[in-house]
Amino acid sequence: MSHPTPVNEAAAQIHEAVTxxxxxxxxxxxxxxxxxxxxxxxxxxxxxxxxxxxxxTIASRAQAGQFxxxxxxxxxxxxxxxxxxxxxxxxDARAGTxxxxxxxxxxxxxxLTTFRPGERLLCVGPLGQGFDLDPxxxxxxxxxxxxxTCSLTTVxxxxxxxxxxxxxxxxxxxxxxxxxxPRYRAYGAAAVHEVHDADGSSSVAxxxxxxTTTLDADPPQQIMTCGSERLARLCRxxxxxxxxxxxxxxxxxMACGLGYCHGCATGTRGGPQESPLICAxxxxxxxxxxxxxx
Length: 294
Ligand SMILES: Cc1cc2nc3c(=O)[nH]c(=O)nc-3n(C[C@H](O)[C@H](O)[C@H](O)COP(=O)(O)OP(=O)(O)OC[C@H]3O[C@@H](n4cnc5c(N)ncnc54)[C@H](O)[C@@H]3O)c2cc1C
Ligand code: FES
Known about the structure:
It contains seven helices and 16 strands.
């Protein structure tokens, strides 16, 4: 059945400007599943929860920017039927664990908060197209807003100890919603800008000023962003200014996460003109340089 109207309104606004990555880089890992044991589950700040799961195969395979689908209905529970997509905040192949930070939005994430260490939940992954890291890049700029930062931290994890400088922006509504600063520092980021709305430091104008002042002389070759359309537009503008490759991780309501249901198309759903699927062609897409302004 064809659904010609654009879905995922937010993504639809930018889908014209992005293209699937389909990189010639590392092949995408085969997804698998675990009945993953909860190793640790704690509340962080006021709004977020930290979840550490034993998922050794996913931990060893996941590429930066990929995600997992978590089924939060326990055995015998009927709802919620659909799994929930979550970015990998960190993975530790040696410990066999993956880490997620999430905010409570509705029934699924509310139920997720009730899982205690030792309980198990179904975890499928690693899924989707992650970020395409250019090994020749000397500097990479990561720009995340709120929970969107969780899609970017694994880039810094992969670049830790390499000659590539990471410059990170972690943005939020207030100081308690700014995620990732300590993790970026632990990975040896060259600079971390923690900005928020409460003091105006997160405005597009303020960030543009901060980033152009500090980076114009030695700009990044790659820019990666997640969590805000406003910031995605700024990244695109900066990418034009610095002739940098810009990649954006998009969000969508995902029923399967596997490319089966076709509910996550970036624009037109179904039929021969179907837009790319955020779960399978993304969630990371590349901004095509020189396209119309969004
Ligand atoms: C690739 C990807 C990675 C994500 N990573 C994270 C993360 O690291 N941390 C985090 O807190 N959140 C993340 N999200 C958003 C998270 O999946 C939703 O907040 C969650 O599914 C909401 O479920 P719910 O049952 O609590 O909310 P409800 O609103 O009750 O969910 C109802 C339905 O809508 C879907 N849905 C609702 N909001 C969203 C949303 N914003 N994005 C996608 N689906 C949604 C749910 O999957 C479910 O099918 C990610 C989303 C995607 C697509
Ligand atoms: S969520 Fe089912 S195809 Fe993308």
